[in-house]
Amino acid sequence: KNIQTINENNTSANPLLAEIYHNMGDTNYSLKDYSEALIYYQKLYTIQKESSSPDYSLLASTCFNIATTYE
After folding, report:
1. Is the pTM of this model over 0.70?
2. Chain-wide mean pLDDT for the chain?
3. Burial of 43 (0-12, 13-18, 19+ CB in 10 A)
4. What is the distance between the alpha carbons of residues 33 and 53, in angstroms, rounded to a whole number?
5. pLDDT, tens digit (0-9, with 9 covering 90-100), for 28-50
6. Strand, coil or helix: 54
7. Rg of the chain (C-alpha set)
8. Pick from 13, 30, 52, 66: CA 20 to 30 A from residue 46's CA?
């Protein structure tokens, strides 16, 4: 519910929400719940891509994380 509140009260380029999605993706990946990890990594990618000044090294890292969920 807290993630929903953060998402509703802020723009899609919210760095706190991006950090939460990154951590949730990593946690689900560690638990071998790859489909759930993929959801969070994709949400993270969207936030990073829509940022006013995207950090391309972070985008690349997120793309790598997305790719590894398919292995």
Report:
1. yes
2. 87
3. buried
4. 31
5. 999 999 999 999 999 999 999 98
6. coil
7. 12
8. 30
